[in-house]
Amino acid sequence: MTGLPSSATLPRPTLSLGTHASGPSVATGNGHAGPEQRQRLLARAEELQGQARLRAEEGDIEVSARLILQALDCERRVGGLGPQVLQLIKPRG
Predict the structure, then answer these.
(1) What does the CA dihedral 47, 71, 39, 83 come to, rounded to 10 degrees?
(2) How far, in Å, CA of 84 to CA of 64, rounded?
(3) Which of 30, 37, 50, 60 has its CA 20 to 30 A from that of 86?
(4) pTM of the full structure
């Protein structure tokens, strides 16, 4: 036993970005988003990375790993925002 609390007693971070304190949902279903949505996702990713760092320093590796995965998901969503390349290509016809 390492002296760390069991994972059953720890709060689990959620992956939902829809109710973030900065405003309404940051994810859109149409692939098009404004710069404010990109900034919110990047800010959320940075916040999650900071929380993960603190949890890792406290020795809570499991929660830290989950927070890192959430931050990576935010960064992945940023990469998917804006028009897609295939939508910009006009077929010859």
Answers:
(1) 180
(2) 32
(3) 37
(4) 0.55
CA dihedral sign, ordered 14, 67, 69, 18: positive
Give dist(CA 32, CA 1) in Å, integer: 49
Residue 18 carries which side chain, given as an amino acid letter?
G
Q: Which two tokens stand for residue 33?
A: 């988003």
User: pLDDT tens digits, residue range 14-69?
Assistant: 444 443 443 334 444 444 557 889 999 999 999 999 999 999 999 999 999 999 99
CA atoms within 13 A on the CB side of 11: 4
Place of tokens 């059953």: 8
